[in-house]
Amino acid sequence: MCIDFGLTWLFKEKLGVNKYAANTIGFSVAVVNNFILNYIWTFQPEDKNIQIFFLKFLLFAVIGLGINNLIIYFFNEKILVPFYFSKVLAIGIVFIWNFTTNNFLNF
């Protein structure tokens, strides 16, 4: 979450990148970091074919990114909830999506 938020803030606020592009950058870097940490410590799969795990993880993450951006769009643009509060909601919901899909369908 720190990587996601930190990079999103850096790209959006300091570098002037579009909020959805900044969100995508932060989310994407966090996903790769999460894969490494989950592969090593959380799930510890018996099958060591890391490429298959990463491809599945990436597929679920891309779907999660779509969900993430839709939630931010809905709350920030339609309901006028501040961007970073919308992002917190999106992170919480997508965390459940990512963990559940990877727990049951990947690792």
TrEMBL record:
<keyword id="KW-0808">Transferase</keyword>
<feature type="domain" description="GtrA/DPMS transmembrane">
    <location>
        <begin position="2"/>
        <end position="107"/>
    </location>
</feature>
<keyword id="KW-0812">Transmembrane</keyword>
<protein>
    <submittedName>
        <fullName>Glycosyl transferase, group 2</fullName>
    </submittedName>
</protein>
<feature type="transmembrane region" description="Helical">
    <location>
        <begin position="53"/>
        <end position="75"/>
    </location>
</feature>
<dbReference type="InterPro" id="IPR007267">
    <property type="entry name" value="GtrA_DPMS_TM"/>
</dbReference>
<feature type="transmembrane region" description="Helical">
    <location>
        <begin position="81"/>
        <end position="100"/>
    </location>
</feature>
<dbReference type="GO" id="GO:0005886">
    <property type="term" value="C:plasma membrane"/>
</dbReference>
<keyword id="KW-1133">Transmembrane helix</keyword>
<dbReference type="GO" id="GO:0000271">
    <property type="term" value="P:polysaccharide biosynthetic process"/>
</dbReference>
<dbReference type="InterPro" id="IPR051401">
    <property type="entry name" value="GtrA_CellWall_Glycosyl"/>
</dbReference>
<comment type="similarity">
    <text>Belongs to the GtrA family.</text>
</comment>
<keyword id="KW-0472">Membrane</keyword>
<dbReference type="GO" id="GO:0016740">
    <property type="term" value="F:transferase activity"/>
</dbReference>
<feature type="transmembrane region" description="Helical">
    <location>
        <begin position="20"/>
        <end position="41"/>
    </location>
</feature>
<dbReference type="Pfam" id="PF04138">
    <property type="entry name" value="GtrA_DPMS_TM"/>
</dbReference>
